[in-house]
């Protein structure tokens, strides 16, 4: 029997390895390679134990004794390794108790040392001489490995006091990134550029670092600041209201609305006021990309309000556009506006002169992707003509149910005409799904045209009533327009025409 040649401890070691191996092999798939290596090491020691039994009587007794002791010692190390993984990586997590990785390693190492002392004691080693020798050796090692021990103790301290954890975002000196690993010697962080930076633990313990985002937060937030300058002639309340309204209503990925964004007047420069928009990131990773997106929204919001970003008064413009060039630019823009108007059925009955006059009254109103053009229920002050880009119209049921997509419109489309022409509140919420170049037209923009040609109200009312039927269907519970639906009765057109006449005072 092979067991007859093994040491008395071997059967117990084999049993423990089999039981614990079955317990941890499936849960610890990430440790699969380490488990296999430990198992191979155990089998090697077991073969050494068996060899010692087979060679007994053929080799000197002392040699066989130490071969067996070394084999048993190795078997014990393998068993301790398996037991440590089972206890700290399977049992403790199931009990919802988290133990720092370095602390678990130290406890396992202490167990290794105790097992070594036990085997030495059983082998007849005198501990008084051993401790005297080890004390001197320890002093020499401690002096020669100060940095290594500092890194080791630093890593242990970081994990013990939870001042730094894997998943935190930190900034130290000019380096910032996400903590991906805390080892005995170093802490590794992954920067936004994808670089893996290794920082000695002793360096972290001796220097100040900032925890940008703590993973223990419900949402790991980081505050960002975007600065811009506006001419002193513009009222600060107007600037802050325009910017904050855009940021709070737009759908900007990675921008948190809790805590609320702030737009602050920070300082005065030569001819301009300096503002800061402060907002919070949901994910600190794409910080510069989010800053760029926010700047686009700030610029679009200011342009819609007719507010230009300011330059210092000292700036000298060396190139002056001549009058002919300015006229050419103005003519191209006017032609573009006329083309946009001509493609809209609402203005199909307008003459060329009326379209040209209407084009002069349009106001540029750009929107960034995610901006809200207007909200359902708001008072209608103007309509929008889209020159480029796309927007979606969403309808909110009266009972507060989920929004429904009504339509997606692109270049040559118009939004908000129903509310402007009748004075009724907005019937939908319109959101830009791409950057949009649009023109804004208010009531006064074509009121004089309607007054001069009251018969236009009849054609406009027919078009508006056709669009109004879509909202009527939604409010009645229909998801789509009825196929083959006929034009609404003339009486409904007459009612709508009457509203248009009353709204414009015809």
UniProtKB/TrEMBL annotation:
<keyword id="KW-1133">Transmembrane helix</keyword>
<keyword id="KW-0812">Transmembrane</keyword>
<feature type="transmembrane region" description="Helical">
    <location>
        <begin position="12"/>
        <end position="28"/>
    </location>
</feature>
<dbReference type="InterPro" id="IPR000595">
    <property type="entry name" value="cNMP-bd_dom"/>
</dbReference>
<dbReference type="InterPro" id="IPR006685">
    <property type="entry name" value="MscS_channel_2nd"/>
</dbReference>
<feature type="transmembrane region" description="Helical">
    <location>
        <begin position="35"/>
        <end position="55"/>
    </location>
</feature>
<keyword id="KW-0472">Membrane</keyword>
<dbReference type="Pfam" id="PF00924">
    <property type="entry name" value="MS_channel_2nd"/>
</dbReference>
<dbReference type="InterPro" id="IPR010920">
    <property type="entry name" value="LSM_dom_sf"/>
</dbReference>
<protein>
    <submittedName>
        <fullName>Mechanosensitive ion channel protein MscS</fullName>
    </submittedName>
</protein>
<dbReference type="InterPro" id="IPR018490">
    <property type="entry name" value="cNMP-bd_dom_sf"/>
</dbReference>
<keyword id="KW-1003">Cell membrane</keyword>
<dbReference type="InterPro" id="IPR014710">
    <property type="entry name" value="RmlC-like_jellyroll"/>
</dbReference>
<dbReference type="Pfam" id="PF00027">
    <property type="entry name" value="cNMP_binding"/>
</dbReference>
<feature type="transmembrane region" description="Helical">
    <location>
        <begin position="99"/>
        <end position="118"/>
    </location>
</feature>
<dbReference type="InterPro" id="IPR023408">
    <property type="entry name" value="MscS_beta-dom_sf"/>
</dbReference>
<feature type="domain" description="Cyclic nucleotide-binding">
    <location>
        <begin position="346"/>
        <end position="467"/>
    </location>
</feature>
<feature type="transmembrane region" description="Helical">
    <location>
        <begin position="70"/>
        <end position="92"/>
    </location>
</feature>
<dbReference type="InterPro" id="IPR011066">
    <property type="entry name" value="MscS_channel_C_sf"/>
</dbReference>
